[in-house]
């Protein structure tokens, strides 16, 4: 973590005066230009995009802080995860969420929103438009209405306007899908030279469409559907070619996530593997040229063998 310190009291005083709009006396003005340059350089260096993969056990929740200070929450885990998500956001100093994205109505993605909507102000909400019949989904809609949260259905190709330096693009959504997972919103977040692909629970059929329509190459991949065999095909993994991949799942899940062949596909191409089950919360700090992942990659514990088709 990079920290910036001001070298003397005069610099600190100057910054305070500049913030207050107070002009400085003549003696102090001699060093003003140098101190302003130092201050602006420090501020520029601190412009980071932060992507937080919150450990919500068997589910997804991703908090993003943009360089300009705007915030976005993509999913919120299940009902039990709601308190953890709210506590995590408050610990980060978040008092309001500028943009919520609800990728699809499965409980392990929207359940935690019941707590989030109750405890935090949400400026606007982007939804997949896919409906569901569960009590959790009904309560989710009720809270949106109760708190009068501005609500829009995502459209493929749209861009979310949160920070002029960061592109957030919807690569896929399908409100007409027969099942929930294929309806998932897929987002690509781009800042400078670094791309982050957030795949939610999209499936292999959608992956084929994405390969045909977009340049999917991304430095960081949020592995689809917790590492399920219904997603993360070899063709998709090759198209993304990530340097790092994050799995979000519970160690004790009943679904066998992540499946070995998905782990092997990523491991084989040299991707560094990260897991909320192994590391807990995972924070990625991104500037325009590189990134730092504040967690240790994990060893899958097996020889991945030949390339998986």
UniProtKB/TrEMBL annotation:
Q: Return the CDD domains for the record.
A: ComA-like_MBL-fold
Q: Record's SUPFAM superfamilies? A: Metallo-hydrolase/oxidoreductase
One Pfam family, short name please? Lactamase_B
Q: What is this protein called?
A: MBL fold hydrolase
Q: Which domain of life is it from?
A: Bacteria
What SMART domains does UniProt report for this protein, alphabetically?
Answer: Lactamase_B
The UniProt keyword set, sorted, is: Hydrolase, Signal
- Signal peptide (from-to): 1-25
Which GO terms of the molecular function aspect are on file? Answer: hydrolase activity
Q: Which InterPro entries match?
A: ComA-like_MBL, Competence_DNA_uptake, Metallo-B-lactamas, RibonucZ/Hydroxyglut_hydro
Domain spans labelled Metallo-beta-lactamase: 58-249
